[in-house]
Design goal:
The protein is an alpha/beta fold. It is 53% helix and 9% strand. The protein has 26 helices and ten strands. The strands form three sheets. A six-stranded mixed β-sheet has the order 1-8-3-4-2-7. It has a two-stranded antiparallel ribbon with strand order 5-6.
Length: 610
């Protein structure tokens, strides 16, 4: 093996004016929302343990350091290729772009552009040099509005993770603390750069680190601790088999699933404290379980009732097995829509990672199957209503924004029966003070297209099912294929056609984007008819989903299921042979009423009443 170098480097040292290529067979960026949320949370907790508002910027040099893992580089012909670590480096780059964008206009800006790109001969060259990403990275770096449909599938995940950073970056770091956090991130956060001078050596290092178990995962360390406290070799082997059969099946879902389960289970049943929302506050149970659950269990063994060998057996054999099975069921229902637990699938679409401890919190090992399913559906329905209402009212649903509130809900519903759950959660919804009527101008804007798409899919699916038609929700939500559905404006983008009602194009645009002026239609429809006048498009709406059809007079002829539905709920559906400002106003009011039906808190009681 040739020379190998391993150096600890700060984020600045690693990225500043350095170029990294990624071989074509490694270019997929696979991190999901949960990985981004976890990274932001880990960085936030570590930073806030040091930060005080009274500090000066120079004090950041004395803050604690944070180790973010290793990257393996193959140095070929003077060019650096990332063999392992591109997920972290890509996410760090996206985070730095985000931080650069939100600090614009401030007098205390931190210079970070050299960690993202350089310019030579008038050409932008990004430090992570992947040609197919260049357009998207430029769009993000220059803060331009974007439409994910303009980018190939291989790049959409990068745009999605940038949106996650926008959504989940803590508000408490956006004001005075922002330059302090940026300073700390680029000069106090370290990675180890391991450099080899051939692909063969680089991949040998990669395989050795990943295949030979040089480091134990937190799950492995927890297992070792628990088994070591069980008396008798035969009993230990018996419990080990139980562990293996229940925990290893989770790994089939995702590599991180076992640790995600333990965080969710331990938080749901045992966490009694959480870090206060202020600088210098110490982490509580909730926070520590998220970062070092194996150590937390050892330290809290008395609170967990782990005093004797039999306690450790019970902890695995009964408690862990029960919650692992429920977690597995929840994850399966989150990944694939199941009629009996569809509420769980709907909530999973928000990418709201706090749902899992909340769903597990009220469950007890002696609950019947019906009781378990009812509890899961009630909690999921609560979250579905809460999150949709917040989005409708332009409020954040980020991890950092809702973490404390959801912790309090989790504690309140722990071990409660279904009837108690309904009472607690309906009260919590009423305390929010906002519903769909509190924002009657809800509209599409640059950051909520994905949420608007989901809301339109739910509304369309609701009226079709209530009219006796089969569900097409999965088709409406599919983001691939030539027949995928997209958010379509009823008004084409021609303000000059509407000068009789709007004096300024900006006024027209604001109205045009309101949800009452939107539909969910196949991409091919938008391509063919999207730029045409309303009366031309109307003739084609009748061939599409029921929400689009409802604009056309023929929808109200020989359509008994639909007519019965609108009569039952007293909904103001009507045909619109023309579509003026007043028509859009009527449609907006209709959508508000539909949303109040779909996300009605009485759904929670309806679950118990069948």
């Amino acid at each position: 093996m040739s020379e190998i170098k391993g150096l600890a480097k700060t984020v600045r040292q690693l990225l500043d004016n350095n170029k990294y290529a990624i071989d074509y067979y490694q270019r997929e960026f696979k991190w999901e929302t949960k990985h981004v949320v976890e990274l932001i949370q880990d960085l936030t907790v570590e930073f806030l343990e040091n930060y005080e508002e009274s500090h000066q910027r120079k004090d950041v040099s004395e803050y604690g350091h944070y180790f973010l893992g290793s990257v393996i580089i193959s140095n070929k012909d003077g060019k650096k290729y990332i063999v392992d670590g591109q997920q972290r480096l890509t996410t760090l780059t996206l985070l730095i772009i985000f931080l650069n964008n939100i600090q614009k206009g401030r007098s205390d800006q931190v210079t970070v552009t050299d960690m993202v790109f350089s310019q030579q001969y008038g050409q932008d060259s990004f430090n992570l040099d992947v040609p197919e990403r260049t357009k998207s990275m430029k769009t993000l770096f220059y803060g331009q509005s974007l439409d994910e449909n303009d980018f190939p599938e291989s790049v959409k995940n990068i745009l999605g993770r940038y949106s996650d950073i926008e959504e989940h970056f803590p508000e408490e770091l956006k004001d005075k603390a922002l330059p302090y956090f940026i300073d700390w991130l680029i000069d106090n956060v370290y990675l180890v750069e391991i450099t080899a001078y051939s692909d063969e050596d680089a991949y040998t290092i990669f395989e050795t680190m990943n295949d030979r178990g040089l480091s134990l995962s937190p799950t492995d360390m927890l297992k070792g601790y628990l088994l070591a406290n069980i008396s008798g070799e035969e009993k230990r082997w018996e419990i080990h088999e139980i562990w293996k059969n229940n925990i290893y099946s989770l790994a089939e879902i995702d590599n991180d699933e076992t640790s995600d389960f333990f965080k969710s289970w331990l938080r749901s049943q045992y966490a009694k404290s959480i870090r206060e929302r202020k600088s210098g506050a110490t982490p509580g149970d909730f926070d520590r379980i998220g970062t070092e659950f194996h150590r937390w269990v050892r330290e809290k063994k008395e609170i967990l009732g782990l005093n004797h060998s039999d306690d450790f057996v019970h902890f695995i054999e009964k408690d862990m097995v029960f919650y692992a099975r429920q977690y597995y069921k929840i994850r399966q229902a989150s990944l694939a829509k199941k009629k009996e637990l569809e509420e769980l699938y709907f909530v999973a679409q928000y990418g709201f990672t706090l749902q899992y401890p909340l769903l597990l919190a009220p469950l007890k090992s002696d609950d019947s199957l019906d009781e378990i399913n009812n509890k899961l559906r009630i909690v999921a329905s609560f979250l579905d209503i809460l999150l949709t209402r917040r989005l409708w009212n332009l409020r954040s649903i980020s991890y950092s924004t809702l973490q404390y509130a959801m912790f309090r809900v989790m504690v309140d519903i722990r071990g409660k029966n279904a009837s108690e759950l309904i009472s607690i959660l309906k009260k919590r919804l009423s305390e929010e003070g906002e519903d769909f009527n509190t924002n009657e101008r809800f509209a599409l804007h640059g950051q909520n297209r994905v949420h608007i798409h989901r809301i339109l899919a739910r509304l369309t699916d609701f009226i079709e099912k209530k009219s006796g038609l089969p569900s097409h929700y999965l088709e409406y939500m599919s983001n691939s294929g030539k027949n995928r559905f997209e958010v379509e404006h009823i008004w084409s983008d021609h303000p000059e056609w509407h000068t009789d009602e709007f004096n300024h194009p900006a006024d027209f645009s604001e109205y045009r984007n309101r949800i009452g002026g939107l539909l969910l239609l196949p991409k091919k429809f938008n391509t063919s008819y999207g730029d045409l006048p309303y009366k031309t498009k109307l003739q084609h709406y009748i061939k599409n989903n029921l929400l689009a059809q409802s604009l056309h007079p023929k929808c109200y002829e020989r359509n008994p299921g639909f007519l019965e539905f609108i009569q039952m709920y007293g909904l103001p559906f009507k045909a619109h042979e023309d579509f003026k400002q007043a028509d859009l106003d009527d449609r907006q009011k209709l959508f508000v009423q539909l949303a109040e039906l779909v996300w009605n808190p009485n759904r929670l009681e309806g679950i118990l009443n069948g």
